[in-house]
Structure to design on (833 residues):
């Protein structure tokens, strides 16, 4: 494709995935009220449940090396149906970007900058993310390593700082809840934070590595990210106990409890910094993916001209995407798991099945070996 | 507010139009125009206070009430 | 290229100026730092008197002011139907903005605590600026007076009160609390939360504050209290007491023993309709003072001390336990313990917990070790040889 390909190293790729997942650890309010003190176990279960999703993604990556999701759709479904399916994916990517942007706007707008209109916060932020995306994927993912290291250090420090508030009996009794809660919670975690990795399928062609090996970096990043989410949730349960069900942002309250020798207090500022850093990464990456997908859909030379209008759409969309917080929570809890499964699992699975029926992977391999033989 | 909207969209046009015209591709022009128009419409509707229906809510209602797949 | 570097430097310098934000600029002269909050009942039903203690930054910073100068704090109060209403009327009546992030204590008056506090706690949980690691204290009397009592050593009474609570927690962590643990215990179905009680003691011409006893809540109403000795019994049963002392009074003399460490293990056994709880308490002591125990051999002395200590601890624990059983309040968390460690049994018991708790059979197994006798082993009259 004519669109510029800037390559990223496999390490950047792996840490981008980890950073992507770590940003979602702030969304624990979605499932914590349901699975209460078993939420840490739910994260582990969800990681296990998500593995089939990953397997489909990796198979798609291996079957069509060098092609991103939009190109795969074109190849598998043909020109017209492929474009329709790609359009559906693009709507999904834009929705994700707007939802994350709205989350950021509401957090910063309600707890740090109360008088500032959320419009200002959202617009300034999306402009920065758009600016980052305009410089290419390398810039967007370059800092993922640093962000993961910073967030892990902060995680370790906060765990050490909250040990005197921790009560390990808060984890008991284990798995004594109605199975429906555990199942619902696992479903939520496997689709909302973990399943959104389908967006990574858009950037896989740009990773500087042999297609066979990409699977292990994907898996490593995923496992590391899932582990970090589990540690965050476990720390919150240990400190907050049964009150974790009350709070909209449990990690925020956990960090507020820290008071190291009366001197190091008010550590929730670390949480705010971390949230802004991680959301910056996630929104930049999602924005880049959305615009890249759009430019591939319309077969443009480069995605760069589209940046500003798409930023405007994303900002506007983030105010439309749900009417009120209660609706957002209701969607997140009840229907989003099922809706997201369509985009994250069913569509890629369908793509894979049709690809194999049409024997496309074999044709790809033959085409590539012919080209290699020519050279 | 509308003034702010119009100014920002004109600024956007000012920044982008030279590059789009220089590229001399009809497809790019059409796509850019389409996206610009969509963005402008949505922002205008929001500024005027007309509540725009969210596709996500529609889809969620579809799943919940029509297909009855929900928790 | 020099040009782009210059631009970069300029951008960085400008962004530092923008960092404060435009809408949310808060300067130190523009905020009123709230250090303590007190909530009291008024004579009108359903209204509360909400008092805040505001620290004056200039007065604290002024070192040359001397003791005769202005006090470093200012009290403001308002009457309203609920907490947020009261906060808002204080906000509007003030020349400065209220800054709640440095709040040190939340004190509720006793009469208000006896009526019910859930509706008032809700505001503290929802408000973004309020922090849940502040202690939650019940005042014996008017919370406003407690908050306003001047302390000699501390310029700001609220900070003094918080330090007092912190000191008390050195004896036992159960003697202090924070709002989060209080709310957490309230959320548990069977546990009754406790809060420290603070009193004003009038001594000659000065007033002083004293933390003594614990208030017992059932649901969200305060229904009873534990005095000092009963609170000690509470701490003993939970095995969380140290750094204070036990007084032994025997026929032969008195002794003071300092508690080095303690622990307790709860073992419930289910006996049909009744619940038997065996508590294994361990205490490690040092002898700090002996009065009148002359002419006794060391081994016999230690034996006597150990026996008397065991009796004393048992007395303390049982005095506390009786109060709780009479009030039917499970402050020890027995219900939660069974729910967590024996979930199968809990299924059978949970519906009848209100009937089971008053009928619990508590058996104590106390193990006392005396580690050290201090610098001297014999009191001067006692020479180890019969005179």
């Amino acid at each position: 494709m004519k669109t510029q390909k800037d390559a990223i190293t496999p390490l950047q790729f792996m840490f981008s995935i980890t950073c992507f997942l770590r940003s979602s650890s702030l969304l624990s309010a979605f499932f914590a009220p349901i699975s209460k003190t078993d939420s840490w176990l739910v994260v582990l279960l969800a990681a296990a449940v998500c593995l089939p999703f990953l397997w489909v993604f990796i198979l798609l990556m291996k079957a069509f090396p060098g092609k991103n999701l939009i190109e795969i759709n074109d190849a598998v479904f043909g020109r017209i149906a492929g474009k329709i399916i790609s359009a559906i994916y693009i709507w999904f990517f834009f929705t994700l970007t707007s939802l994350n942007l709205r989350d950021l706007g509401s957090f910063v707008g309600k707890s740090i900058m109360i008088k500032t209109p959320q419009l200002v916060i959202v617009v300034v932020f999306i402009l920065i993310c758009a600016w980052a995306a305009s410089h290419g994927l390398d810039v967007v993912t370059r800092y993922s390593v640093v962000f993961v290291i910073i967030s892990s250090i902060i995680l370790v420090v906060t765990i050490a700082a909250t040990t005197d508030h921790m009560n390990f009996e808060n984890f008991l009794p284990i798995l004594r809840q109605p199975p429906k809660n555990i199942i619902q919670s696992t479903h939520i975690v496997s689709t909302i934070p973990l399943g959104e990795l389908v967006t990574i399928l858009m950037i896989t062609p740009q990773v500087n590595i042999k297609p066979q090996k990409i699977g292990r970096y994907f898996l490593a990043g995923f496992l590391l990210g899932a582990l970090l989410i589990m540690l965050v949730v476990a720390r919150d349960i240990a400190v907050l106990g049964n009150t974790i069900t009350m709070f909209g942002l449990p990690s925020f309250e956990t960090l507020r409890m820290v008071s190291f020798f009366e001197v190091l207090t008010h550590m929730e500022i670390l949480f705010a910094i971390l949230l802004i850093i991680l959301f910056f990464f996630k929104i930049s990456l999602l924005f880049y993916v959305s615009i890249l997908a759009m430019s591939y859909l319309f077969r443009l030379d480069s995605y760069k001209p589209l940046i500003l209008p798409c930023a405007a759409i994303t900002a506007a969309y983030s105010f439309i995407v749900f009417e009120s917080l209660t609706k957002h929570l209701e969607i997140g809890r009840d229907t989003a798991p099922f809706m997201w499964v369509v985009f994250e699992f069913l569509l890629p699975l369908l793509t894979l099945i049709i690809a194999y029926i049409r024997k496309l992977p074999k044709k790809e391999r033959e085409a590539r070996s012919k080209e290699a033989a020519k050279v | 507010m509308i003034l702010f909207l119009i100014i920002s969209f004109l600024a956007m046009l000012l920044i982008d139009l030279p590059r789009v015209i220089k590229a001399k591709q009809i497809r790019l022009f059409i796509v850019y125009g389409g996206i610009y128009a969509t963005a402008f419409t949505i922002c205008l509707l929001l500024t005027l206070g007309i509540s725009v229906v969210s596709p996500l809510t529609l889809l969620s209602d579809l799943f919940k009430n029509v297909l009855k797949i929900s928790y | 290229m020099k040009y782009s570097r210059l631009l970069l430097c300029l951008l960085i310098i400008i962004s530092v100026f923008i960092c404060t934000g435009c809408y949310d600029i808060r300067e130190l002269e523009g905020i009123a730092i709230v250090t303590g909050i007190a909530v009291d009942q008024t004579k009108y039903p359903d209204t509360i008197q909400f008092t805040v203690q505001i620290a004056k930054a200039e007065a604290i910073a002024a070192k040359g002011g001397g003791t005769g100068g202005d006090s470093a704090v200012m009290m403001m109060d308002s009457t309203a139907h609920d907490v947020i209403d009261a906060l808002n009327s204080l906000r509007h009546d003030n020349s400065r903005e209220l800054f709640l992030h440095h709040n040190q204590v939340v004190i509720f008056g006793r009469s208000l605590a006896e009526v019910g506090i859930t509706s008032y706690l809700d505001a503290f949980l929802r408000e973004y600026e309020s922090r849940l690691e502040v202690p939650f204290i019940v005042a014996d009397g008017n919370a406003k007076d407690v908050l306003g009592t001047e302390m000699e050593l501390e310029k700001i009474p609220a900070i003094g009160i918080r330090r007092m609570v912190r000191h008390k927690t050195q004896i036992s962590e159960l003697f202090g609390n924070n709002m989060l643990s209080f709310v957490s215990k309230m959320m548990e179905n069977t546990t009754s939360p406790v809060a420290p009680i603070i009193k004003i003691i009038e001594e000659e011409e000065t007033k002083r504050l004293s933390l003594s006893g614990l208030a017992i809540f059932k649901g969200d109403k305060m229904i009873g209290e534990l005095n000092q000795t009963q609170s000690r019994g509470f701490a003993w049963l939970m095995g969380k007491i140290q750094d204070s002392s036990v007084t032994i009074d025997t026929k032969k003399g008195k002794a003071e023993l300092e508690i080095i460490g303690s622990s307790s293990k709860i073992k419930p056994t289910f006996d049909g309709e009744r619940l038997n709880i065996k508590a294994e308490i361990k205490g490690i002591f040092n002898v700090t003072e002996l009065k009148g125990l002359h002419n006794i051999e060391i081994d016999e002395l230690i034996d006597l001390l150990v026996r008397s200590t065991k009796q004393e601890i048992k007395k303390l624990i049982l005095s506390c336990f009786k109060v709780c059983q009479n009030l039917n309040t499970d402050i020890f968390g027995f219900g939660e313990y069974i729910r967590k460690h024996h979930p199968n049994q809990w299924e059978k018991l949970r519906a009848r917990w209100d009937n089971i708790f008053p009928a619990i059979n508590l058996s104590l197994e106390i193990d006392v070790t005396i580690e050290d006798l201090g610098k001297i082993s014999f009191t001067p009259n006692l020479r180890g040889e019969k005179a």
Notes: The first strand of chain C starts at residue 31 and ends at 41. DSSP finds 13 helices and 13 strands in chain C. Confidence is low (pLDDT under 50) at residues 64-68 of chain C.
